[in-house]
């Protein structure tokens, strides 16, 4: 099944119009990250909510995060927004440290007190990606009040998502704007394998790239719709 992202995004728009202004989705500023390396395939979308609502985050892991692979006794994988894009040849070390514009530092944060966490410490605030037998994790979504989409030091744009295994960086992908006005093949600008953080095309095949984008958009539509209805 192939869905045009423009269609899906109009669903998002319709959902936001019918609900409270307080939590309207700013569809034009959605950011995405597609990770595809070391057998780990994961898709992330970050949809801004108006009026300082932060972001609705949508995550889907297609493969790679198996129980067998997980080192940590918790059976989980940490993941964060890091300050820099992915380096040449999928170099996750080049992404630098965690996004931390508030200089919270590496002090142990807890999900119960997310303001003690670095803005980029997504697993600290929302829990680790839990390993499964198959390595795929069904789509999940949550609201993050801290993620920002603007400001030179605060925006998540142009940065990266890094997945860790007991601290070790095992996969990463750039965060890029998800352009609703283009067709799926051209709107998909992120490529974790692109050198020096350049955004090019999503995977190599446009149809599979379009499918990923459509699936992601559908996920966000559902997630945002669910979040809006929950208010
Ligand atoms: C996991 O990380 C902890 C903390 O850095 C370390 O002490 C431990 O040896 C690691 N476990 C494995 C199996 O690598
Ligand atoms: Cu990290």
Name the descriptors.
231 residues, alpha+beta, Immunoglobulin-like, two-stranded antiparallel sheet, globular, disordered N terminus, binds copper (II) ion, Cu-only_SOD, SOD-like_Cu/Zn_dom_sf, metal ion binding, signal, SOD_Cu_Zn_dom
What does this structure look like?
The protein has 231 residues and is α+β, with helices and mostly antiparallel strands. It has one domain (5-224): Sandwich (Immunoglobulin-like). The chain has helices at 5-17, 122-126, 184-187, 206-230, and strands at residues 31-37, 40-48, 55-63, 76-77, 79-82, 129-130, 137-144, 160-165, 168-177. A hairpin with a 2-residue loop joins strand 8 (160-165) and strand 9. Helix 1 (5-17) runs parallel beside helix 4. It is globular. Residues 71, 166-167 line the site of 2-acetamido-2-deoxy-beta-D-glucopyranose. GO terms for molecular function: metal ion binding. Residues 1-21 form the signal peptide.
Number of strands: 9
Overall, the morphology is globular
Mean pLDDT: 78
Terminal Cα span: 32 Å
The largest sheet has its strands arranged as 5-8-9-1-2-3-7
| Computed Rg | 16 Å
- Classify the fold: give the CATH topology: Immunoglobulin-like
The name of the CATH architecture is Sandwich
Unreliable residue runs: 1-8, 13-22, 180-209
CATH class: Mainly Beta
Strand content: 15-25%
Secondary-structure element sequence?
HEEEEEHEEEEHH
Ligands bound to this protein structure: 2-acetamido-2-deoxy-beta-D-glucopyranose, copper (II) ion
Number of helices: 4
Specify the helix fraction band. 10-25%
């Amino acid at each position: 099944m192939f869905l045009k992202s423009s269609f899906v995004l109009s669903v998002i728009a319709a959902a936001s119009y019918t609900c409270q202004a307080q939590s309207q989705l700013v569809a034009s500023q959605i950011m995405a990250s597609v990770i595809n390396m070391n057998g780990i395939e994961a898709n992330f979308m970050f949809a801004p909510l108006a009026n300082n609502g932060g972001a609705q985050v949508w995550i889907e892991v297609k493969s790679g995060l198996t129980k067998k692979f997980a080192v940590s006794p918790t059976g989980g994988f940490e993941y964060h927004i890091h300050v820099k894009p992915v380096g040449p040849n999928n170099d996750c070390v080049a992404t630098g440290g965690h996004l931390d514009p508030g200089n919270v530092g590496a002090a142990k944060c807890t999900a119960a007190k997310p303001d003690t966490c670095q803005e980029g410490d997504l697993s600290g605030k929302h829990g680790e990606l839990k390993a499964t037998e198959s390595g795929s994790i069904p789509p999940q979504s949550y609201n993050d009040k801290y993620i920002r989409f603007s400001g030179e030091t605060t925006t998540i744009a142009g940065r990266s998502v890094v997945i860790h295994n007991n601290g070790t960086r095992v996969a990463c992908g750039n965060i890029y704007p998800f352009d609703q006005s283009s067709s799926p093949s051209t709107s998909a600008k992120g490529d974790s394998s692109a050198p020096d953080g350049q955004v090019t095309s999503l995977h190599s095949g446009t149809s599979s790239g379009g499918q990923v984008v459509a699936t992601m958009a559908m996920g966000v539509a559902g997630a945002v719709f669910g979040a809006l209805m929950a208010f």
